[in-house]
Amino acid sequence: MTIILGSASKGRKRILEERGFTFDAMSADIDEKAIRDPDPEKLVLLLAHAKADALIPRIKEPAFLITSDQVVLCNGEILEKPENEDEERAMLQMYTTHPAETVAAVVVTNTETGERAGGVDRGKVWFHTFPHEAIKQIVVYPRTYELAGGFSIIDPLFMPYIDHIEGERESIIGLPWALTQRLLEEVRE
């Protein structure tokens, strides 16, 4: 059966490619800001389900649809994609004193049976202090504004400032692999 990644995320695509999967990608294009919840786990699950709901009517063949969403929790605050340079700068400064905890949801839907399974995984990233020159580069880097929490552990611009990570690398990137595999198994016929 076909696999469809319901995401435009380069990181999520890269994870599936690294695992040798052939897949199609579709973007749900939902208004993520219209869906809110103060609990980060509930929020990302609501968003991943909403993406699946938006995409299912567009899928014409039996498929496993994988949708996902991610936020970063730092010092008790939910961080999504930064909207401007000031937000990105504030996030980078926060990461100097607090770990960035990624909260990633995955929802897998079998479009043939309608069966759906979802779950959440967490990881943490501790950063070294970002030097002033690095912050100047990062806040003008367009990709920064496509990333939950305004960072990527696989981007050369951020890699030198990672102290250490806790949890699955793929979870921090945005598609927890162990969770995704388990959910795929759950919805198989």
CATH class division: Alpha Beta
Ranges where pLDDT stays below 50 over 5 or more residues in a row are none
How many β strands by DSSP?
Answer: 7
Averaging pLDDT over every residue, what do you get? 96
Helices, by number, come to 6
Which fold does the CATH topology refer to?
Answer: Maf protein
Reported for the largest beta sheet, the result is:
7 strands, mixed
What structural category characterises the helix and strand content?
alpha/beta
Helix-strand pattern, N to C? EHEHEEHEEHEHH
Overall morphology: elongated
CATH architecture: Alpha-Beta Complex
Structural domains: how many: 1
Topology, pairings included?
Layout: E1 2-5, H1 10-18, E2 24-25, H2 40-55, E3 63-74, E4 77-79, H3 85-97, E5 100-110, E6 116-127, H4 132-139, E7 162-166, H5 169-173, H6 177-187
